[in-house]
Amino acid sequence: MANTLSASDLRKEYPTPGAPLVVLSGVSFELATGKSMAIVGPSGSGKSTLLNILGTLDRPTAGTLRIADADPFSLGAGALAAFRSRHIGFVFQDHHLLPQCTAVENVLVARLAAGPVRSQDSARAAELLGRVGLSDRMSHLPSELSGGERQRVAIARALLNRPTLLLADEPTGNLDSVAAQSVGKLLRELAVADAAMLIVVTHSAELAHTFDSRMRMSDGLLTAE
Questions:
Q1: What is the SS3 assignment for 17?
Q2: Is the Cβ–Cβ distance between 27 and 203 less than 8 Å?
Q3: pLDDT digit string (tens) for 173-192?
Q4: Do the beta carbons of residue 48 and residue 103 sit within 8 Å?
Q5: pLDDT tens digit sequence for 6-17
Q6: Do residues 108 and 117 touch, judged by C-beta distance below 8 A?
Q7: Does the pLDDT of residue 1 top 80, yes or no?
């Protein structure tokens, strides 16, 4: 199975009392295993809508999406949820950690949709926290971690199930410049190490220029920077 992403003429419209509201006007691109891409553009240009479609959280009005040689939108609701859990990892601007759970427990949350936590899942969570520099913070609650550390836990959680595609929506937006650089570097390194595709939506030109390719979203279209 080829771990590639192919988007072809993705369109998204919302009905209104007048003419339809067009958010995506025909987005096409491909991304290969281990490659990273940044998407920049002004607020309201369609970046988050595109990310939601790529993450199978929303369906396009038209066009096709293939992830790892599969069409996720041909699946029923249960199969689509299982596909998303297996193939897609999410990192958001807000870490969304459970405040009552430790760092390692928060990482293991990603496993729960697929069934009980296994010993290999616990070992994988510990390994990932080590890779993001938090071996000595595994038993700490989110309130005991810095903003950058909490985002590192979120990255580890997104990678627990070895996803084919890692999607990050403004992952450094709430961090200071030092923590932002560290988190950006980790995302790139871990995605390559795990042979995952990485797509990052960001307003940071500095962060965008650290990825393999840069695309700009404007008026519902995606073009190379």
A1: coil
A2: no
A3: 888 888 788 888 888 888 88
A4: no
A5: 999 999 999 999
A6: yes
A7: no
- Short-list 207, 112, 90, CA closest to 156: 90
Report d(CA 112, CA 206) in Å as an integer.
36
Cβ-Cβ contacts under 8 Å for 11 (sequence gap 6 or more): 22, 24, 25, 26, 27, 60, 61, 62, 63
Which range, of 91-95, 130-134, 196-200, averages the lowest pLDDT?
91-95
Going from the C-alpha of 82 to that of each of 21, 51, 78, 88, the distances in angstroms are: 31, 18, 6, 10
Domain count, the chain: 1
Residue 58 is encoded by which pair of tokens? 């929303």
Collapse the DSSP code of 168 into the 3-class scheme (helix H, G, I; strand E, B; otherwise coil) and give the result. strand
Q: What residues contact residue 152 under an 8 Å CB cut-off, 6+ apart?
A: 129, 132, 133, 134, 183, 186
Spatial neighbors of 183 by CB under 8 A, at least 6 apart, are 148, 151, 152, 155, 171, 172, 175
Look up tokens 């000595």; give the residue. 136
Burial of 75 (0-12, 13-18, 19+ CB in 10 A): middle
Reported in sequence order, the residue ranges of the chain that DSSP labels E, i.e. its strands, are 5-14, 21-31, 36-40, 62-67, 88-91, 165-169, 197-201, 213-218, 221-224
Show contacts of 108-112: CB within 8 Å, 24+ apart. Answer: 108/160, 109/157, 110/85, 110/157, 110/158, 110/160, 110/161, 111/160, 111/161
DSSP 73-94: GGS-HHHHHHHHHHHEEEE-SS
Q: Which domain holds residue 76?
A: 5-224
d(CA 18, CA 157): 43
| CATH number of the domain that residue 161 is part of | 3.40.50.300
